Structure formats: structure tokens, C-alpha cells
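Key idea: predict the complex, not the pieces.
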Amino acid sequence: MNSFFQQVYDLVAQIPSGKVVSYGQVAQMLGHSRAARQVGWAMRCCPENLPWQRVVMADGSIAGGDFADMRRFLLQNENVTFLPDGRVDMAACRWSGDSGADIE
DNA sequence: GGACTGACCAACC
DNA sequence: AGGTTGGCCAGTC
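Result:
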């Protein structure tokens, strides 16, 4: 099924190591500024080949409930910068697409 | 086939 | 500053 849902996987799969994106950002890249809910819903399927740990909340917090702490560890292992708050440093690790032109 | 929900976000009050 | 609401898509009831 080719859909927004599928595009989310494709986009997340393209996120380079040491970079993260917020749910809303992914949605916005795909042309759906408010489809963040659906992005999270796509993540609910948790594909093994999908580095969804790079997908965080808009404020840098890790989503995913029980696995959140595990993902934070994975991100640290990928050279992602974290703030003293325990959140991802979005200012330094926010991935603005491969071109960086679709957003902002 | 209609209504609800779901790992969110941002605007509004 | 914190709670409520609207909005997107797709899957389930």
C-alpha cells in the first residue's frame, strides 16, 4: 500500500546517523503539516529495518513509552547530542531532509 | 459504511 | 502556564 504511511517509512529510513526528526517534521516533509499523529501510528508497527529511534517529539523528548529509554541509549550510540534535560538537542541534530530545503 | 482511536503538534483559551 | 481542541491518515470495531 503506497500511502503517507509508506512514505513515513521511506523518509525515516533515510535519516542519517546522528540526526533526528520530530513527528511533525516528518509529516511536514511529506506535505502533511499536521499528520504527526499518523506518523506515530506508523511507528506503532515498529518495523525492524526502520531506525525509528531517530524520530522524536517536537521538543526532543523520546516517544514510545517503554522503549523510550532504550532508544535514547541507541541515539547516544549514534553520536546524537543530548541535552541535560534528557532530551535530544534538536538545535544540533535536527535533520532537515537530505536537501534541507523542504523545511524552514 | 460510519465512528473511534492512535507512540503527536500547535494553536487557542 | 496549563488544559482543551482541532487536524491529518489509516486501521479497527
